[in-house]
Amino acid sequence: DPLDSTSRQLDPLLIGNEHYDTARGVQNVLQRYKELKDIIAILGMDELSEEDKLTVARARKIERFLSQPFHVAEIFTGAPGKYVSLKDTIAGFKGILAGDYDDLPEQAFYMVGTI
Prior knowledge:
Helices cover 56% and strands 0% of the residues. By secondary structure, it is mostly helical. The protein has a single domain, classed as Bovine Mitochondrial F1-ATPase, ATP Synthase Beta Chain, Chain D, domain3 (Orthogonal Bundle). α2 packs across α3, α2 crosses α5 (86-98) and α3 (50-65) runs antiparallel to α5 (86-98). The radius of gyration is 15 Å and the shape is globular. The model has no long low-confidence stretch (mean pLDDT 94).
């Protein structure tokens, strides 16, 4: 869980600014989504601002994208494992954060590997 786990390795001096900024951006979107879940449960999505609706949509895509087709999970998922480079992973998350994939449904990100 990106919100409950921490690492001393998540340091821009160790992993670079692009990786660090992207990871923090993902955490921020997921945190905002977590805050909005109670509002959604009580009032529904219609009561959210357009910005919050966008945040929710992107957070859900991020959650799906975090489900990757690992080789060790092949036996459980029935899906072949894929190797995804760190560069491609960062690019995928950056694209979600930037809204590059706002037109795609959240299910398009589940077990996809590289976007």
